[in-house]
């Protein structure tokens, strides 16, 4: 079984300073320093403890 990384350990997860807090997003370009197209929002202040159902790294069943 392929293990899905937690968002905090994933290279797709990047935080953007939103004036007083950090908004976390999942981006298409893994490991890129340039922000590309977003896959989805992960939340504010910290990434979620588990990856969301729409995570691109999850296996499709």
Short description:
The protein has a domain at 7-44.
Shape: globular
* SS field, number of helical segments: 0
- The low-confidence parts are none
Q: What multimeric state do the chains show?
A: single chain
What descriptive keywords fit this protein?
single chain; 61 residues; mainly beta; three-stranded antiparallel β-sheet; 3 strands; 30% strand; globular
Describe this entry's structure for a reader.
Strands 1-2-3 form a 3-stranded antiparallel sheet, with no helix packed on it. The chain contains no helices and 3 strands. The protein is mostly beta strands. The chain is 0% helix and 30% strand. A hairpin with a 4-residue loop joins strand 1 (13-17) and strand 2. The termini are close together. It has a domain at 7-44.
Secondary-structure blueprint:
Elements: E1 13-17, E2 22-27, E3 38-44
